[in-house]
## 1
Amino acid sequence: MELDNNNHSVFSMYYHLVLVIKYRRKVIDDNISNRLKEIFAYIAPNYNIALQEWNPDKDHVRILFKAQPNSELSKFINAYKSASSRLIKKEYSIIRKSLWKEYFWARSFCLLTTGGAPMEVVGRYIESQGEKI
């Protein structure tokens, strides 16, 4: 296993995040998925987070990312959900027909540590989930 380090610690912190579209609306297509991924990759470094895997479905995304001990995960997730919701609704007006209120993402999220499973196994699992869009 390869470990990361900073000035004061050695670590391996991988997380599996699932974000669901409000009302489970099936609004994610390739263009929207690519834009959501771009926004994630843009915001993540501000929180010492690095994207590892991205797998969209029509009504949710599964993300594998790497963090550091000083990463503020809940702040990052809230910042990402807020920014991506605002930008996606602004850039893809068709979304407003399916999601008539201000929210793009469901209020809750699922965040799992990857435990002792090898990253290749977790990555393959995330890749294999759901229907491809």
Note: The longest helix spans residues 73-91.
## 2
Amino acid sequence: MSVFIIAEAGVNHNGSVELARKLIDVASSAGADAVKFQTFKTENLVSKSAQKAQYQKETTDRNESQFEMIKKLELDLETHKELISYAKEKSIIFLSTPFDLDSVDMLHNLGLDTFKIPSGEITNLPILRKIGSLNKNVILSTGMSEMREIGDALQVLIKAGTNKENITVLHANTQYPTPMSDVNLNAMLSITGEFDIAYGYSDHTLGIEVDIAAVALGATIIEKHFTLDKTMQGPDHKASLEPQELHAMVNAIRNIEVALGSFEKKPTPSETPNIEIARKSIVAKCDIKKGDVLSEKNITTKRPGNGINPMKWDCIVGTIASKYYIQDELILEQSNE
């Protein structure tokens, strides 16, 4: 099964349907499997006195509240319908993360088959229970979480009605951008070891190397923010990939998928012709007369590898030359007589 790549548009549309459509274009052109937005009703998500995260203060107007910032990024029902239809035209799956119960209902009524639960909602029992009851495919991000909290969330989802086989847990760090020292990618393996569940990685680092490493470690889902332009105004643009970087990430992941191959170790079709060229055979070190005893003095190993395998050296040493050999001639299978 190939890695499911989610191009996370998030709120990088800046509230513009036109920009949202362009983001869908980029995700589709890059070869991502899905493009994901965020669905919320600001009044249900954040209180008017809530502060911004530090990275949000650095990338947006410091004088506006989190409520004011988010309100400008809200997408209504009709916009969702338009974007779902446009994504279908572009042959890419439309996903969106719900941040409140009303948004869960909206996305369910719009027919989404997969629900992404963001890191901030992993301790929100009402949302977990609501999404779990839908028995959809669930992607659970685990930024800021301890193993116990992941286990609690999984228990809620499964008890509410979602099959464990339909859940993928994403290791994540919610700092934008995530310092390399805080990635802790091995924790992804600890999660699957603890819960025996499908796993992936939601990435907020700069660049694409951690995503490639995650795939090499067995991640089945990769989620990565992208934007049309990192210099645009908005909370997430700076830590997002630009279009050419998204293309590069998708291409790299697809190459890694192919490169991982199978667990069988054997010569591949491409290298089989090199066996004869690169390996050696047992050959005459000098001219050898018929009847001479073959020894380290008169035989050696040289390319090509189309004669006796040097691993049979001990079987050849001490045998009698059955013919006259000139220097570098391949030694034939001998008898001891």
Note: The first strand starts at residue 4 and ends at 10.
## 3
Amino acid sequence: MLKVGVLGAGHLGKIHLRLLKQSEHYQLVGFYDPDTDNAQKLSQEAGYHLFDNLDELINHVDVVDIVTPTMAHFETAKKCVEAGKHIFIEKPITNTAEEAETLISLAKKHQVKGQVGHVERFNPAFRAAIPTIKDPMFIEAHRLAEFNPRGTDVPVVLDLMIHDIDAILSLVKSKVKSINASGVSVISDTPDIANARIQFENNCVANLTASRISLKNMRKSRFFQKDAYVSVDFLEKKTEVVRMKDAPENPDDFAMILQNAEGVKKQIYFENPDIESNNAILDELETFALAIKNDTTPIVSLEQGAEALRVAKQIIAAFDN
């Protein structure tokens, strides 16, 4: 089993601690959090070993799970990597694209692996949809959340939209050609609502909307491709596939048939792929353990995390244009 320590014991850090404790792939050694009062209280209540500082934690583990505020990602990850430790780092990978590139270089130099916590890649609805999504040409994503003060230290693009950016980049096998975007600050000092239109070199277009001041929660994406439409509900964990195929000569009475202006008839078929229930956070942590053990590329590599960050930063930069 890999010895793991958690850096950061906030809301998400507590979840990681609990899941790592029950994982069959890790031995949870302990955690460190500079908020002494919170850390000591958690240690006493849950029984996790509390390290006095980050260096002590690093010395006792194989893997460091970094669940700190984004501003602290680079310096803490750099220290872990330079000590020869594998890192799981929450999204976004770092605060700047330059920091991400430096971290990637350091990981290669010290021959350690890193994975970025883009948890929606492990959402069972998204997993079920992947085999059905082939060369999408138009994508629409809506990620709306009720207001929560936690996370407002960064723009909504880095807080919410980056989930959809990463998911889309994993499916569209083409480089980004252009980005148009707008953002509005309503409650926070940084934009709370944002919309981005990403055009890829293969002419695929993705239209993304994110809000953290919505009256209801929504996490839906729709993928349009030739003869098919795929809908993914990340929140409700549902996937629907609508396909169009050439209509048979003698369709049954209940068949849904469409006919275009040229007289071509298509029959519509509805599919609901099986959704395998899972704990997405536990899955992302355990697949990272397997990548380390088997010396394979993590499902969400540092390079992919860096690319998602680059696109997110381009969207934020486009707000002023």
Note: Residues 2-117+280-300 form a domain with the Rossmann fold fold (CATH 3.40.50.720).
